[in-house]
Amino acid sequence: MASLAGISVLVIESQPTMRAQLRTMLASIGLEQVQFAASAGMAVRRLRERRYNLLLCEYHLGEGQDGQHLLEDLRNHEIIPLDTLFIMITGERNYERVVSAAELAPNDYILKPLTAETLRARLQRAFDKREAFLPAWKLIEMGDSVEAVAYCEQAQDEYPQYLIDFLRLQAELHAAMGHVEQAESLYRLILESRTTPWARLGLARILYTRKRYEEAEEFLTDLIAENDLYLDAYDLLARCREENGRTGEAREVVEAAAKRSPHRLNRLRHLGELALTLGDAAAAENTMAEVVRKGKYSDFRDPEDHVRLVQAQLDQGKLESAEATIADLDKSMGEMPKAKLCKALSSALVHARSGDVLRAQEALLEAARSSAAAGHLSVGLKQELVKACFDNQLGDQGTEVVMDILRNAADEQTVESTRAVLRSRGLEELSRQIEQRIQTEVKGLISTGAEKARAGDYDGAVAEMMNAARKMPGNPHVLFNAALALLRHIEHRGWNERFAAQARGLIERARRLAPAYPKLSAISEFMHSLLQRYGIRPQGIPRRPA
């Protein structure tokens, strides 16, 4: 049985009375390391400062966000590690149905009214399970996914009550390492024994990664028909339909999801972008105005939302409304580097629409001076910047932005959509020239790093490839080779924790950008072999018997 002694707790609760009650209950069961956050934003700030073993979170947190959305933000933005338990407290009797439809589910949930004994028993149960999974989570954290899979295979016999959970983690790890066939087999094995919504979604995600969109869509359609609250399934279904060029049908799916969960900013953004793509400026304006309003309550607000709102307003000829939106952007987020670029782009769009080419050029040149923030701009808005530059006789600046897009293109879709932007301006030949130039540049950078490594200059190889990674932070091929240079250095010069941590970060970034990248498996095995060779293990976790 896991010990509850010394557990650090963050309670996220907006009501002072309930905060006091929880403090008393936690103290009565021996938990004294307790801090409080009265809102989701305060919780995020506290969690950026330190780690906690346990988060106790009220489901209803006031305007703009509930506990489930907070959990999704914390996990998706990697603000809390896997071994931090998140337990929801709620008075909603139908919450079990809600949480069963959440891919990122809390570790447990407790219904109100609750007693100290109920709280103690549920915490004990959650920490007993945490103890079983802790070695796997620690191995994942240090980058040894291969060993984490091996631990899961061993632990499922030792902890048969968690068999399905260990199988799920194995499938997710195989998918993360690029072992898509093994992941698919595990999901199908789970589905043979029980109808598990998350396994069907996992299988659909693997099919999507393998570009088997029709098969994925079939799984997702059936899943939604059986459980209309499984919102992650809607999002993946919309992406499947977009990949097949069915943008209107994708929009219908996202609309259905947004009606069921109206607070998710990412989903609303997607809906607004789809409306813009389809030429429905009025709907895009309504949606993006809502995103901007809700974003005021979120630590993850994005200046790009204002640009999309400006686009929708300009498409309807609402110049004054667009200018008001730019003013709001400057007032609410003007201190952010990316906001300066977004303001400049929005101003350029307004001036171009009003026919003032000179002022549009001035604004675009201001955007160019804010290019340090361009790396954080989405591909879609970079492409809008390209259009604005070429439409306002700033071809050199437009070419530089195109080069930035292609240097960091994570997939063929980005390349093709950028080609289409240039093709729409009659610039097919320029597109071919830029693509050839970037291919040569990438090959040259990687070749230089590889040559230094072959010559035994492992310090030089690392310096060369890390510089390339800084220059092309969104290029999976470059990121992979930078990670490889770091690991080669460790192989030949000895263990270096800083280099290992950098390699882990680069591999994870490459995986997120290109989950089907063909060399993910090889580099995962290489990382595992180095950890084994140097005897690097998480503290307190013994080596498996040979």
From TrEMBL:
PROSITE patterns: RESPONSE_REGULATORY. This is Tetratricopeptide repeat protein. GO terms for biological process: phosphorelay signal transduction system. SUPFAM superfamilies: CheY-like (SSF52172), TPR-like (SSF48452). It comes from the Bacteria. Residues 8-127 form the Response regulatory domain.
